[in-house]
Every structure is written in structure tokens, then in C-alpha cells.
Design brief:
Blueprint (H helix, E strand, L loop, with lengths): L19 H13 L14 H6 L47 H19 L2 E4 L11 H7 L3 H9 L7 H11 L4 E4 L6 H13 L9 E4 L3 H15 L6 E3 L2 H5 L10 E4 L1 H11 L8 E5 L1 H4 L2 H13 L6 E6 L4 H8 L6 E5 L9 E9 L1 H14 L5 E4 L3 H11 L6 E4 L5 H13 L4 E4 L14 E4 L6 H8 L9 E8 L3 H13 L6 H4 L26
Helix pairs in contact: 6-7, 7-8, 10-12
The chain binds adenosine-5'-triphosphate.
């Protein structure tokens, strides 16, 4: 039977007496490691250095561990307050081997390991709770109220997805969590469900949970998902809008779930004295985006404002670079790391293709040709800037294609309408900047076209992940020109990792460290500039 590596160390004890000198040295070192109180992550500039630094001492919290489980892979949370994986038994220990309870515990650990392997779930951390076999276990193990299960059934959710199987029990056990799972694999419900279960009922107890999303569109979508699962309960679920931030006093606001972008929440705290000191759950969705330098200061501020010592924080994304984990580890406590599949890979449900378009003009010709041959809506087209989005829209608008465009120059209402029209099928083709590249769940997108080469491997994974969601298959086509060739290898690596074929010459290109690749490109439009307005 396959056994987890941590079995090797079961029962090993550290003899404090024998190693007294080393122990004393270690203890001193821990005491010397003081926490920098100015900023949770340090200054934005120092992020990378901080990421490499050892984690500071954590606040000690009184949280009970649950059904113990072996640690898979390396233990990323060395500093966590780990309880022994196998509890010491004072009574039944005898010469005939482990006690009955211990044996049952071993069996449960083995069953969990086999089940995780089957669902491609990898965990690290001490005492990781058993994964969910089915949704019914939410009731039998955790006393989930019937209305939540009813709402899930109405949404057509029959079985938990792998990330839901593991992340939901982790959060229900009061543990902090890093979760990384492919695009479209149900990460949203993996935090919505346990939060609603833990909050139990609506209450006038200040702001009880906060969800941060990198874009307004995603914040709106997440608010809707919360409301869908909360149907039948009187939870107050609020989106932080411009109008809300204008409200004079937010210091006495009560709400069960608050969803926001970092900037809006930062303004609400600073200008309107929003009080986050009672927040019990904080979720950083698309966490690697939130940890980028532009947003880090606001995130830092919000995380500090959520000062409740027993807060449970979690990070969710389809891409989780090491530096984000390192950074988050400095603030998280006794966290569990849950990875589904391999970290930083694209969804295997998306058939990926690279197309050499020669020039900017060549891209437009290739696009028109493919639409003339077969246009299978809905199609999402990504470009690298709002100027180029406008230009391409200007071109396609003449082609009798029901196209629309979304970028940051549009008003909030225009952006919302563009998303709604695309969702309802009124629009067949949506031309977009990366503003909708992450998290957006447009059901049934048949094809994503990267008209402009993405500026990073993570951007590529998220863009193409708008297709191939919830078990459906999809397609992604990426155009490239001469200037993109040096970066092809990075995309090719993502493609091969998810089982797509890539020509050998691309795989033998030299590896290149990827800085943001956003070259100046020739105008898409053949028309004079003022006609594009
Ligand atoms: N258990 C389930 N069974 C069937 N469908 C599900 C289940 N859970 C979620 N879904 C559906 O799967 C789709 C994708 O879910 P979601 O948007 O949460 O993906 P995600 O993992 O957050 O993706 P991304 O990384 O792009 O943000 C949604 O339409 C959602 O309703």
C-alpha cells in the first residue's frame, strides 16, 4: 500500500535533554526574531528581500487541530504551531504495538492519502483535515444547514471539485489556507461555502468577513455567488461601491460578508473609518495579483486593519508564485497548503494553439479569416492595451459581427453592460484587456484568442482559463509575431505541462527570464487615428 513519506518519521521524538545545548541556542534565536510592526509585508520595494527572509514569530492562537493527517511533500509551514501528527497515548500503550485508536488513525491517514492521490490533491501542513467524500458530509461532519445544500443542488453541484473537497474542511476547521487549483475548478465555492457555514446566521456584529478581488468585475461576480449560496438566509452581503465609500460614516457598519477591490476598501478604511477589527474571515482571491507591487500597499493596510487575533485568512489562485507564498507565510498562522494538480499550470481542458501571424496586419487577416470560416460564439479576444482594444473593436464593428469591448476607460455601467451582454449571448465576441483575464466566469466560452501575446506566463494561464471551465472543454489560440519569439518558450512550457503539443524548434529556444513583455506594436487599424475615436 502506498504510504505517505511522513510515515517514515512517525513516532520520532526530539530528546530535549540530550540536545540541551542546541535546544537552548535555538530558543535564543527564536526570541531574537522580532516582528517588524510597521508594515506586515515591509515596504513594497523590500518585498522580494522580505520574501527570502525567515518567517517572523507568530502570534499564538488557541486553535484545536482536527483529524490528523500525514504531511505530503515538504512542510512549508515549519513555523506553524504544529501538534504531533500522532497523539501520544498515555493509557493503552502496550508491548503489542500501537493502540486501537492509533491503528484507526493510521488507517484513516492511509485512506486520505489514497483519496487525495485519486483527486490529484497535494497538501502540506500539520494535521490536515480529511477531504470531503461528498457534499452530504458537510451535514454529517460539520452540521451544514439544509438551505446551503439545497442551494448547491439548485446550482447543479452534485460532487465537490477537488479544491472544494480539501479547502472546505480546512477552512471549516478554523485553519488558514493557501489554495492553488486550475482555472474554472470551483475555487469560489471553496471559500463561499465554509464562510457562510461558519457565520451561521446574520448578525449585527460589525463586519464579519472580507473578500478582496483584484477587479470590480470579479468583485461583482463574487457578490453574486455569495448571494446564490446564501438564498434562504438573511445574511447581509455587500459590495463596496463608490457610492458606499461616499457614505459619511462607515465606522458602525454591520455586514456579514463584504466584497471589495483593494483600493475601494483602503479608501473606506482611511476616509470613512470603516472598522475591520471584528473580521473573522479574510480571503485574498487571485492572491498573486493582489500581491503585485501596485496593490501591495493597500493589501498590507487592509490585512493590518483586520486585527481580530483569531481571524482566519486564506489565499486562492490558479497561479501561486513562490514569492507570494513566502510573503504570505510571514503573516499566516498554522496554515495548510492545498495544491490541486501542479502549481502554475493551465487547465488541461483547454486545447492550446500557437499561430505565427507575421505582422500586426497578419493578425487581423488571420482573425477575419477564421471568423469567416467558422465563428462559434462566445469568443473572447485579449489585447495588450485599451488603445488596441478600441482599435480592434473599430475594425470588427464593420464586419457585421456582434462584438463589444471592455477596458478601463469605460464607465462602470458600460463595463457591467459589456459583461452582461456577453453573458446573455447578445454579444458574440468580446474584445478585452486583462481586466477580465482573471476569475471571470463566462459560461461556455468556446474560444479565447490572444490577439496580443500575453505579458507573462501567469497572464497566459488566466486568460486561456476563461474557456474550459467547470469540466467543459475549450480552445485557446495565441498569435505571435517576430517580437514575441523570444518569449515563446515560456508559453510553450505551460502548453507542454498541460499536455498540448508544441513544435520542437520552440522547445529548443533559449529560456528567457520573463519581464513584462508588452512591446510597442504597430497600430491594428489601417484607418487614420482620428477615425478610431
Ligand atoms: N461542485 C461543482 N460542480 C459543478 N460546477 C461547479 C462546482 N463548483 C463550482 N462550479 C462551477 O464551476 C465554474 C467555475 O467556478 P469558479 O469561477 O469558482 O472557478 P475558479 O476556480 O475560481 O476559476 P478562476 O481561477 O478562473 O477564478 C462556475 O460556473 C461554478 O458555478
Amino acid at each position: 500500500m502506498a504510504k505517505d513519506p511522513s510515515f517514515l518519521f512517525a513516532g520520532v521524538h526530539f530528546n530535549k535533554k540530550k540536545f540541551a545545548n542546541d535546544f537552548a541556542r535555538f530558543e535564543k534565536k527564536v526570541k531574537d526574531d522580532s516582528v517588524d510592526d510597521k508594515s506586515l509585508f515591509g515596504t513594497a520595494e523590500a518585498v522580494q528581500e522580505n520574501a527570502a527572509a525567515p518567517p517572523p514569530k507568530k502570534r499564538k492562537r488557541n486553535r484545536k487541530g482536527v483529524a490528523s493527517d500525514p504531511v505530503e511533500g515538504f512542510n512549508v509551514f515549519k513555523s506553524s504551531q504544529s501538534e504531533p501528527d500522532i497523539p501520544e497515548e498515555k493509557t493503552e500503550k502496550d508491548e503489542d504495538g500501537p493502540s486501537k485508536e492509533k491503528k484507526e488513525l493510521f488507517r484513516q491517514m492511509e485512506r486520505n492519502a489514497i483519496f487525495r492521490k485519486k483527486h490529484n490533491i497535494h497538501v502540506s501542513g500539520a494535521n490536515v483535515p480529511s477531504p470531503l467524500q461528498n457534499f452530504a458530509e458537510l451535514k454529517t461532519r460539520y452540521g451544514c444547514k439544509s438551505y446551503i445544500l439545497r442551494n448547491m443542488a439548485k446550482l447543479g453541484f452534485k460532487e465537490p471539485t477537488p479544491i472544494q473537497r480539501q479547502a472546505i474542511p480546512v477552512l471549516l476547521s478554523g485553519r488558514e489556507c493557501f489554495a492553488c487549483a486550475p482555472t474554472g475548478s470551483g475555487k469560489t465555492m471553496a471559500f463561499v461555502c465554509p464562510i457562510l457555514m461558519k457565520l451561521k446566521n446574520a448578525s449585527n456584529d460589525g463586519i464579519r468577513s472580507v473578500i478582496l478581488c483584484p477587479t470590480k468585475e470579479l468583485a461583482i461576480q463574487t457578490t453574486r455567488e455569495f448571494k446564490k449560496l446564501a438564498r434562504g438566509n438573511k445574511f447581509r452581503i455587500k459590495l463596496v461601491t463608490k457610492a458606499l465609500v461616499k457614505t459619511s460614516d462607515l465606522s458602525k457598519m454591520h455586514c456579514d460578508v463584504l466584497i471589495s477591490t483593494p483600493l475601494r476598501l483602503w479608501l473606506a478604511i482611511r476616509k470613512r473609518k470603516m472598522d475591520l477589527s471584528r473580521v473573522e474571515f479574510l480571503v485574498l482571491d487571485e492572491s498573486d495579483k493582489l500581491f503585485e507591487l501596485g496593490l501591495l500597499k493597500q493589501i498590507d493596510f487592509v490585512v493590518k486593519a483586520c486585527s481580530n487575533p483569531s481571524i482566519v485568512r486564506s489565499l486562492f489562485s490558479a497561479t501561486l508564485p513562490d514569492f507570494v507564498e513566502d510573503l504570505a507565510r510571514t503573516i499566516m498562522h498554522d496554515a495548510v497548503r492545498v495544491i490541486v494538480g501542479r502549481k502554475n499550470t493551465a487547465s488541461e481542458l483547454v486545447k492550446q494553439k500557437l499561430v505565427f501571424a507575421g505582422s500586426e496586419e497578419g493578425k487581423l487577416i488571420a482573425l477575419r479569416q477564421s471568423f469567416a470560416e467558422s465563428l462559434n460564439p462566445p469568443v473572447l479576444i485579449f489585447v495588450q492595451s485599451k488603445e488596441r482594444a478600441k482599435e480592434l473593436y473599430g475594425e470588427l464593428a464593420f464586419d457585421n459581427i456582434r462584438a463589444n469591448v471592455i477596458h478601463s476607460d469605460l464607465s462602470q455601467i458600460q463595463r457591467e453592460n459589456a459583461v452582461d451582454d456577453f453573458r446573455s449571448g447578445k454579444t458574440w465576441v468580446l474584445i478585452a484587456t486583462d481586466v477580465v483575464a482573471r476569475g471571470m466566469d463566462f459560461k461556455g466560452i468556446s474560444c479565447v484568442i490572444n490577439f496580443d501575446f500575453p505579458d507573462s506566463a501567469a497572464a497566459y494561464i488566466h486568460r486561456i482559463g476563461r474557456s474550459g471551465r467547470a469540466g467543459r472543454s475549450g480552445e485557446a489560440i495565441t498569435f505571435y509575431t517576430e517580437e514575441d519569439i523570444p518569449y515563446l518558450r515560456n508559453i510553450a512550457n505551460v502548453m507542454t505541462a498541460s499536455g498540448c503539443e508544441v513544435p520542437q524548434w520552440i522547445l529548443s529556444l533559449p529560456k528567457r527570464k520573463w519581464k513584462k513583455h508588452r512591446p510597442r506594436r504597430e497600430s491594428i487599424s489601417a484607418k487614420p487615428e482620428d477615425e478610431n475615436e
